[in-house]
Write a structure and sequence with these properties.
This protein starts with 10 loop residues before the first strand and ends in a 5-residue tail after the last strand. It has 2 domains: 65 residues, 2-Layer Sandwich (Alpha-Beta Plaits), CATH 3.30.70.1350; 64 residues, SH3 type barrels. Helices cover 13% and strands 41% of the residues. By secondary structure, the protein is mainly β. 16% of the residues are buried. This is Ribosome maturation factor RimP. Keywords: Cytoplasm, Ribosome biogenesis. It comes from Hymenobacter jejuensis. Belongs to the RimP family.
Length: 146
């Protein structure tokens, strides 16, 4: 039902939660290759509310929130990486290691990351290396205020 409420193929769902309360809160988190604006969130919210009303009746009591992931939220879908090419990522891998570096490219099965390693007093950037999506436990964009 949610995917049918999206205005085009450029948007996709990265999270959906329903609280367990007397008046449930439905939270849909959307993203897109170009990001998601407030107009798209409003459009999806109207469509989704209409679909919920059709399915459960207009008297159904719920709160609906349609939003985009915050800047501090991890990337959870491979499609999210594309718009962050050129930015710095912080990765936690399944084997427990952590890497930070510039996202140089995305591929069907993973990313190319130019890892920055610190050696005593200086940092060195390694040539880009392939990191499979399957190996990534968590990825966050490093926010820089330079």
């Amino acid at each position: 039902m949610l995917q049918d409420s999206l205005p085009g193929p450029e948007l996709f769902v990265v999270g959906l939660t329903v609280s367990d309360a007397i008046r449930p809160k439905v939270t849909a988190i959307l993203d897109g290759e170009q990001g998601v604006g407030i107009d798209e969130c409003a459009q999806v919210s109207r469509r989704l509310a209409r679909r919920i009303d059709e399915a459960y009746g207009e008297e159904a009591s719920y709160t609906l929130e349609v939003t985009s992931p915050g800047a501090d939220q991890p990337l959870t879908d491979p499609r999210q990486y594309t718009r962050h090419v050129g930015r710095s990522l912080s990765l936690k891998l399944n084997d427990g290691t952590e890497k930070t570096g510039a996202l140089e490219a995305t591929e069907a099965e993973g990313i190319q990351l130019a890892e920055v390693v610190k050696d005593k007093k200086k940092s060195k950037t390694l040539p880009a290396a392939f990191v499979p999506f399957a190996d990534i436990k968590e990825a966050k964009v490093v926010i820089s205020f330079k």
